[in-house]
């Protein structure tokens, strides 16, 4: 009998994966894979809430799957799949739409932000996005959902929807917990450290892509916005230190050092030395990931085998949940 607790998480194939996605989520997935039974999906259905070019979406879906593996997610140990390959996500998503209130969805900050940045396409999918995300998680009875801080509100609403449903029909869903890494749950833009690092940032100097060349990464870190104080010290909540706080967070996530020990390591040094050390740590951490990614590029058959097997395994678990839910709500069995 498998007594491991279960994890579900995923990322959207809507652009290059950034250091933010990696530190906030994917690195935790890798760290947790030995202790949990894990399902990691490429969330292509979520990504069409913003208009996508079809050929690009297909390519990015495969690229993201490849990135998961390159980052160290072992396809032998984990179930890796593409969301749209498992119809249960849409099926449970619809049911849960009917158990979610407009009022609670309209409070979601991601919806508010995306409605602003995509004012010409505020579609219903963008609004019900968190319900599909709740379905993703609840289908697998996930105990833990490792995500960055920006997704915690969506985990909260998932818990609310599940609790509401269970209140009516009995214990159908497991109530999941979110999981955030100690360092890196919210990596900020290198250029505007009051905003989160984002793959949709029009200024590429604001984010580090996991596919950036080493010299590009070093350049971006060296031109990161800091302050004029010149002291490598972490001050939570101090807006003037946002740039340094962010670089220290990145360095801490890369090296495992605490903020205090980073401060002593760089006492008497200027920001130039500190930035060089951050750049080197990031470059060296990403190098093997990049090499593995390039190696996998030529191996399409291998990737296809992984996502096909993954979808089959995921579907077997997910369909059982849909069947239970259908029965509970009164749908006639076929
Ligand atoms: P997405 O694709 O926007 O991001 C993937 C993961 O990266 C985290 N993240 C960050 N972490 C730290 N700093 C940042 N600057 C940063 N930017 C992004 C996100 O928090 C996320 O964990 N809705 C999800 C995808 C999703 C999902 C799910 C996740 C769909 N269904 C079910 C978990 C469970 C999203 O858009 O992630």
Describe this structure in words.
The mean pLDDT is 96. Helices cover 54% and strands 7% of the residues. The chain is built from 13 helices and five strands. By secondary structure, the protein is mainly alpha-helical. A three-stranded parallel beta sheet has the order 1-2-3. The protein has a two-stranded parallel sheet with strand order 4-5. α8 links the parallel β4 and β5. The longest helix has 30 residues. It has two domains: 211 residues, HUPs (Rossmann fold); 91 residues, Orthogonal Bundle (Tyrosyl-Transfer RNA Synthetase). The chain is globular and about 70 Å long. The structure holds tryptophanyl-5'AMP. Tryptophanyl-5'AMP (TYM) binds next to β1, α1 and α7. Tryptophanyl-5'AMP binds next to β1, α1 and α7.
How does the SSE layout of this entry go?
Layout (H helix, E strand, L loop, with lengths): L5 E6 L7 H14 L4 E6 L1 H4 L6 H18 L7 E4 L5 H10 L4 H5 L2 H9 L6 H16 L4 E3 L5 H18 L7 E3 L34 H9 L19 H14 L3 H7 L5 H27 L2 H30 L5
Parallel strand pairs: 1-2, 2-3, 4-5
Helix pairs in contact: 3-12, 4-7, 4-13, 7-8, 9-12, 10-12
The structure holds tryptophanyl-5'AMP (TYM).
């Amino acid at each position: 009998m498998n007594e491991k607790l279960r994890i579900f998480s995923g990322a959207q194939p809507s652009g290059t994966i950034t250091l933010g996605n990696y530190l906030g989520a994917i690195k935790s997935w890798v760290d947790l894979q030995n202790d949990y039974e894990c399902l990691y999906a490429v969330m292509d259905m979520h990504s069409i809430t913003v208009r996508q070019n079809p050929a690009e979406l297909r390519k990015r879906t495969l690229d993201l799957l490849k990135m998961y593996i390159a980052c160290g997610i072992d396809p032998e140990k984990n179930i890796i799949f593409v969301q749209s390959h498992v119809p249960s996500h849409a099926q449970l998503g619809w049911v849960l739409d009917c158990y979610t209130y407009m009022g609670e969805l309209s409070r979601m900050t991601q919806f508010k932000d995306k409605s602003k940045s995509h004012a010409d396409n505020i579609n219903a999918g963008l609004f019900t996005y968190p319900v599909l995300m709740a379905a993703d998680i609840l289908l697998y009875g996930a105990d833990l959902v490792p995500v960055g801080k920006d997704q915690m509100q969506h985990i909260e609403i998932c818990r609310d929807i599940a609790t509401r449903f269970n209140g009516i029909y009995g214990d159908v869903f497991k109530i999941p917990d979110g999981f955030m890494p100690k360092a890196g749950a919210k990596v900020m833009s290198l250029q505007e450290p009051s905003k989160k690092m984002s793959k949709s940032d029009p200024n590429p100097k604001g984010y580090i892509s996991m596919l950036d060349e080493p010299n590009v990464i070093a350049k971006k870190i060296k031109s990161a916005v800091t302050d004029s104080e010149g002291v490598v010290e972490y001050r939570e909540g101090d807006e003037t230190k946002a740039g340094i706080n962010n670089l220290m967070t990145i360095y801490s996530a890369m090296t495992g050092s605490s903020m205090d020990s980073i401060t002593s390591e760089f006492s008497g040094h200027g920001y130039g030395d500190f930035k060089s050390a951050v750049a080197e740590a990031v470059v060296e951490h990403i190098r093997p990931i990049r090499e593995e990614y390039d190696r996998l590029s030529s191996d399409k058959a291998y990737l296809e085998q992984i996502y096909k097997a993954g979808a089959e395994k995921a579907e077997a678990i997910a369909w059982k949940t849909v069947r239970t839910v259908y029965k509970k709500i009164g749908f006639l069995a076929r």
